[in-house]
Amino acid sequence: MSLSLLKSVTAAAVMRNLQGPILEIAGLRKDYGDIEAVRGLDLTLHFGEIFGLLGPNGAGKTSTINMITGLVKPTSGSISLKGIDCIAHVKRIQGDIGVVPDESNLYDELSGFDNLVFCASLYGMRKAVREQRATELLETFSLSDTGKRPFKAYSKGMKRKLTIAAAIMHQPPVLFLDEPTTGIDVESARQIRLLIKSLNRKGTTIMLTTHYLEEAQRLCGRIAFIARGRIVKTGTVDELLGGLRSDHLLHLTVGGQADQLAAMLHQHHPSLRCTEKGTHVVEISSDSPVELHPITAFLSGHGFPVYEARRVEPTLEDVFIAVTGINAGELESREKGGRKR
Ligand SMILES: Nc1ncnc2c1ncn2[C@@H]1O[C@H](COP(=O)(O)OP(=O)(O)O)[C@@H](O)[C@H]1O
Ligand SMILES: [Mg+2]
Fold this sequence. Notes:
By secondary structure, the chain is of the alpha/beta class. The protein has 2 domains: 14-110 and 158-241, Rossmann fold (3-Layer(aba) Sandwich); 248-313, Alpha-Beta Plaits (2-Layer Sandwich). It has 13 helices and 14 strands. The strands form 3 sheets. It has a 6-stranded mixed β-sheet with strand order 6-7-8-3-9-10, sandwiched between helices. The chain is elongated and about 80 Å long. The model is unreliable at 8-16 and 334-341 (pLDDT under 50). Magnesium ion binds at residues 61-62, 102, 178-179.
């Protein structure tokens, strides 16, 4: 085989590898006593992607990440990373993954710098290399000035950034982040999102969990909606929106309480799905084009003027509500709980 042919065959193999699965999960379950936290989850993570597991509190996101990364033993199912059985060989995958738990696993008494150096020592990195990398990462995360302070003196945002730095000291090809921006200040969250994107551009495959729709939409190439321990739908944002795009979706701004008017409208026009979208905004969705005059005539005939009618495109929130039955408010505020469902 000529050298150039060999090169192109190798390049094709590398491309295939890059597009193929790096992590495969099948039938994954986790029961804590009578609580079914994860109920038969199938999922594939591809080389080079940012994949988001999006769902409300209690959906099973942390349990899933913890099972993949070896922190929690699955009740049943299989997990394989680069073809290695992660359940049977937890230790063998540790060098290939970085894990950022939802609550930091770093040492309160150690300084930021010492925490990083200590984490790197667990991966057998040489002293000079780990000290150089710790210095670089403190710089990357704008933490150089605070590198000598004990971890316990850090703000929440700084703690999260240092926890991410610790997880990537050994430059793992796959990074798992559990709610990376939850509960921290806006600026730290922005820096973390930028960093996630930059790591991904340099080749790190990333899986993260979040209960922020917007974060999933901004960061992730593919998203899986998880609810009550099951994945309800997976796809790119475009694929997820595709199912709803055929809907005819209108927002009416009305001179009355939207919830009452939505109910009245639906009663009068049963083929229209009418919901409240704001105090004075009614959303109308229909499988066919909506004729406006009968609606405005009906509402104004009852003393409720219609000020505006606007066609809108469906959002990821609409898709989430349609496939899970959970509304976006609930997504962000839902309390933990989950007896047998
Ligand atoms: N160690 C545990 N013991 C008992 N129940 C747990 C434990 N960890 C999680 N759960 C329960 O499992 C369900 C899923 O939790 P979790 O995986 O933390 O969801 P999420 O990360 O999506 O909020 C919840 O009902 C939660 O209360
Ligand atoms: Mg969680």
